[in-house]
Design goal:
alpha/beta, Rossmann fold, 15 strands, globular
């Protein structure tokens, strides 16, 4: 039987937005609602779990090419905060900042997740804009205020804030078949997620072209969506890389387990849910050493790490040519996984006192 305490989850993004924060907010609401009353405040979403009260706000043209921000409704936000006993905020933003301000005034317990480094995202989104520097400054100021205002702050690393609770997320064990062995000499490299400037999927396309100039051995499977999808597909076509596109989906495992290698060249990550999912599927992973990825992906043990784009072709060439290494790294990646979903791990951290 659910108690009378109501948990309010505040987010600037919800499905169908192709990003991890949208999935975390929706899935954790679903899990927490099994035991407690839950309200989900965010942009309008047609896929709300049963038992979760949705408090929708209309989406606006504001934001960037990959995320349309919701229009704040101060009255709705105030009523939602007043009716709650605990407020969980997924990344600082305009809606969440208003909710946090109300929560402070009403003495509601608040938990803030730092999923993104907004200063870095501004740099990638607006590299040549005259507004880049003031927007970076504004993002840093908003983040500092939010961290100082919340009762709990959770991130993948302590960074510059001493009060941050460092959360370690482990790869989940997926009940699915092992990655396909290669019998015809064809290797499928997979990527799952958003295609935006910071994800650097173009670096993977260029690396594949360098490793397989005759276009005989490697195909690249992109499972995702985003502002750079068409330009990435065009780049693959111009370089002769065989690119297979699958629309973004929240459950990518069937598309991952029929691949042999997973590559993420993302230049900006926190937990990197897609990398954890690939490891849970038993795939050998090549990933850039950013965010918390090096805390669970160890070079030469259960995956391969790189720092710069020029290192990536050599690592791809190594895995393509060595099936035994692929299988060893894939088994080690899956052995490091735990029998608990990513969403359950976030839900437990959200309500932990």
């Amino acid at each position: 039987m659910k108690g009378q305490d109501r948990v309010l989850i505040v987010t600037e993004t919800l499905p169908p937005d192709p990003n991890g924060v949208a999935l975390i907010a929706r899935r954790t609401a679903e899990i927490i609602a099994r035991e407690r009353c839950v309200s989900l405040l965010g942009p309008r979403c047609s896929d709300i779990p049963p038992g979760v009260q949705h408090l929708p706000m209309r989406r606006t043209p504001l934001g960037n090419r990959d995320l349309r921000l919701p229009a704040p409704n101060p009255g709705l936000i105030l009523r939602a905060v007043r009716a709650s006993s605990q407020v969980i905020i997924h990344t600082p933003g305009l809606v969440s900042s208003i909710a946090l301000w109300y929560a402070r005034r009403l003495r509601k317990h608040t938990t803030l997740f730092l999923h993104n480094d907004y200063r870095q995202l501004v740099r990638y989104a607006l590299p040549d804009s005259p507004m880049r520097v003031p927007l970076e400054w504004a993002a840093a100021l908003a983040e500092r205020w939010a961290v100082g205002s919340a009762d709990r702050v959770i991130s993948c690393c302590a960074a510059a804030y001493s009060k941050v609770e460092v959360l370690s997320i482990r790869a989940p064990v997926f009940l699915c078949r092992s990655p396909a062995r290669v019998g015809d000499g064809q290797i499928t490299i997979a990527y799952h997620g958003r295609l935006s400037p910071e994800k650097a999927v173009d670096a993977t396309v260029r690396a594949i072209a360098a490793v397989d100039p005759a276009h005989e051995t490697i195909r690249f499977r992109i499972v995702g969506a985003g502002s750079l999808l068409q330009s990435t597909l065009s780049l693959g076509h111009s370089l002769g890389v065989r690119v297979e596109h699958v629309p973004w989906c929240a459950e990518p495992r069937d598309h991952l387990t029929t691949a042999q290698i997973y590559v993420t060249a993302s230049r900006e990550e926190t937990f990197s849910i897609s990398t954890l999912e690939a490891m849970g599927c038993g795939l050998p992973v090549i990933a850039r050493a950013v965010g918390s990825i090096p805390s669970y992906l160890h070079h030469g043990e259960n995956g391969l790490l790189f720092e710069s784009d020029r290192e990536l072709p050599d690592l791809i060439r190594l895995l393509v040519s060595d099936e035994n290494l692929r299988l060893r790294l894939g088994r080690a990646a899956r052995d490091a996984a735990i029998d608990k979903s990513i969403w359950e791990q976030f839900a437990e951290a959200s309500v932990r006192s």
